[in-house]
Amino acid sequence: MKWRHSLLYLLVFCVVAGYFYYFEVVKNERKAAADKEAKRLFQVARESLDAVELHPKGQKSIVLKKEDRWKILEPVQAEADRTAVDDLVSTLSKLESEREVIAAAQDLTPYGLADPSLKVRFHSQETWMELLVGEKNPTGSGYYVKKGDRPEVFLIAHSDWGPMSRGVNDLRRKQLFTFEPGKIVGLRLAWQDGSIVDVKKQDKPPGWEIAGEPEVSVKESKVRNAVEQVQWLRARDFPPEGPEDLKAHGLDSPFLRVDVDLGEGRTAFLLVGQKDQDGKRVRAYSSELGAVAWIEASLLNELPKTPRDLEDRSVVGVKPDVVQKADLRLGDLHRQAVRMDDKWGLAREGKGPEALKEPWQVRSLLWDLNQLEYVQKVEPVPPLPQNPFGRIELWSQTQLLAVMGWNQDETGPESLRTVWVEKDGNLKALRMKSEDLEKVRKAVQGILSPSDKEASS
């Protein structure tokens, strides 16, 4: 019967396929794994390593020890960089031989192993292991190595040299602080010239208050930026002198002191010195790191110098994600940008919206409007122009959120321009940089008439 023949063929096929899979796939995979394991110079698990010593020729030895975390004991006492040490430990535990060069060398000089450039010792489960690293091979693809007092000379890959050749500063922790920016409750900056910026977190909007100046409205994003500038600090390098004498680093009377209130009685502080001669870096001491480090001097330009630097000077101050419609007018041009799910369309008078080919232009305009800041208020408020050259209305689905208008003034690039803003039933006249207003005008022009000649400002 045909079905019996089919069943027999199927059985034969399964037997052959199983035979092929086992001998051609499984056994090959096992052989490859066994070959790879045989190439390992040290049969040790990465997690079991708890001490490493690096003895580079002609340089100070580096001693690392793992307690609750990795620490450097020599030539300085410092917390180790977790990523750098993990890379080193992983390299040592997985170190493979590219090939055996010679089984028992009578003279180690040709391999640079008579006086090795690096000796590595590491400890695992009450056993110390040793690796000697010599010269590169003639092609530069690897290094000659030798295991302790074993006679064999092996070749390891060039890439394995990097993690083992790092200096002490490469292995030190670079992060000055580890606090979470969203959890701090206070920030105080004391500048050498006597200026103080002191803000405290509040439960009510806008969320932060300047000490002694509760009438000043603080922009939350400015405080967040200052906090993140401190939290993300990384050491570029470490000076040779230790942190014991801050005066030697010019930090006994710092150019800037930053105090961070972490809540529940926990605090941290940062001392920052003057810029060095090239103006690119400064010395800094972190209470958390417990060491003096070189950091980017650009930090001094990013932090607020006075309480007014944190003031909310938003011209419009409407978040882009709440805007559903934007009525745009520029000279004789007038259109309405309408949100269409995740895109934007442009509606002409009496017609429905047509999807924009470049909806990012509307998103960019809304973002710019939210970031706009004024230089000064104009008081008393001058009369609102009846027919302003430029006018932007921002709407939710049913509510007018804000209106911004300006005249067609002829001014130079360094002057200030007056804009009128209606929001929450209030009318304000604000002076802002002309280049900022010009950026807005060009963005509106690009949306309303991207192919036409630009309207002049």
How would you describe this protein?
With 457 residues, the protein is an alpha+beta fold. The protein has 3 domains: 46-171, Dna Ligase, domain 1; 181-310, no CATH class; 320-448, Dna Ligase, domain 1 (2-Layer Sandwich), CATH 3.30.1490. It contains 8 helices and 25 strands. The protein has a 9-stranded antiparallel sheet, covered by helices on one side. Strands 20-19-18-17-22-23-24-25-21 form a 9-stranded antiparallel sheet. Strand 8 (142-147) and strand 9 form a beta hairpin. Helix 7 (360-371) runs antiparallel to helix 8. The longest helix is centred in the N-terminal third of the chain and has 38 residues, at 2-39. 27% of the residues are buried.
Structural class: alpha+beta
- Contiguous uncertain segments of 5+ residues: 30-34, 452-457
- Tell me roughly what share of residues is in helical segments: 10-25%
Taken together, the total number of domains comes to 3
Q: What number is the mean pLDDT?
A: 87
Reading side by side through the largest sheet, how are the strands ordered?
4-3-2-1-6-7-8-9-5
Total E-strand runs: 25
Global Rg: 34 Å
Q: Quick one: biggest sheet?
A: 9 strands, antiparallel
**How much of the polypeptide forms β-strand, as a percent range?**
25-35%
Assembly status: single chain
End-to-end separation in angstroms reads: 93 Å
Number of helices: 8
Q: What is the overall shape?
A: elongated
